[in-house]
Amino acid sequence: MFSSRFGASEGSSPQWQAKLALEASGGKVLDLTGSNPTTAGIPYPGGIPALFNRDSVMRYEPSPQGAPLARRAVSEYYRRRGRDVRPDDLLLTASTSEAYAFLFKLLCDPGDEILIPTPSYPLFDALAELEQVSLVRYPSSDLALLRNLISTRCKALILVNPNNPTGRLLDAAEIRAYLELAAAYGLALIIDEVFCDYPLAGKAYLPFPSQGPLVFTLNGFSKTLGLPQLKLGWMHVAGAPASVRAAKEHLEWIADTFLSVNTPVQAAAPDLLDLAPGIQAAILERLRSNLRAAEALVRRHGFPWSPPDAGWYLVLDPGINDDGDDETFALDLLRRQSVHAHAGHLFGFEEGRLVLSLLGPEDEFQEGLRRILAFAEEFRHG
Length: 382
Prior knowledge:
Elements: H1 14-24, E1 30-31, H2 68-79, E2 90-93, H3 96-107, E3 113-118, H4 123-131, E4 134-139, H5 143-149, E5 154-160, H6 172-185, E6 188-192, E7 215-220, H7 221-224, E8 233-238, H8 241-258, H9 263-274, H10 276-301, E9 313-316, H11 326-337, E10 339-340, E11 342-343, E12 354-357, H12 362-381
Parallel strand pairs: 1-10, 3-4, 3-5, 5-6, 6-7
Antiparallel strand pairs: 2-8, 7-8, 9-12, 11-12
Helix pairs in contact: 1-11, 2-9, 3-4, 3-8, 10-12
């Protein structure tokens, strides 16, 4: 009855079932996976709801590319950061997920291939399956291997910068290398920069230049403002003028089919983006506080330490490579220590890793990490 887009349903994971069972029995679970800042105790400016109380939200004036007022606001947001992003080269979407879906429709026929980095965010699998696109995974640290993976059906290369979950930022030499590779093989570049406003280790974020191969850069309110419920994302289209014109024409046709971006958030976009510095400062304070605490705890316990350059996540090596898999470790950690952490294989790690969110309240994050490290020592020493 249903289309071939849907694989066999596996149901919820044993770890998720165990978490629900613990909570149902009244147990307190320290959840170190949360990526929603609106439920993490982050302070937000007052008055945000009032920004939607305006007459313009009652007028429906559909624009496939997005309301000019909102696109100008996004352009101004970038201008304040020293970047030249013209409103006419922006297309608004309901989220970065929708932007990916639009780009897969734009660039790929069913069965075509998209190159994605590993480790990376697992959402790509679901998006590609829905669009009937094949994913080809490449290790982001091995450009030579990446070249060997490019086939005649490859249409685009995704770069998540900063990476999710490692937080690694690309340097200038790597950006040049990817641009040259894309030009040589006729690939479009899709740059996911949603965590670019959250530097953690002093390394600067470098945007891709506007010249060269076709480049689509994605971002949105979910991370820029820490307000995922407002559902506004965008893509910036850059490259050779003729390619940009053709891409925008096709994207407008796709967007006109869905018209998914709601009027209230577009009308409020200029005022909302004016709040970005304060919101980002509050989120950064939480991220950096938890990262400092993590470094002290991890070093004290003698585990390897590799801090992220940017973003909201910390990848932890609990020393389980030779003693078991990360899924079993994460499940035992939940059952015995009431700590919920992501198993690294969900993000494509082949070695035993845990992925932790740095967003949570400091006391909960630090207590959860203490339990993880103590449990890892017990696990490691038998």
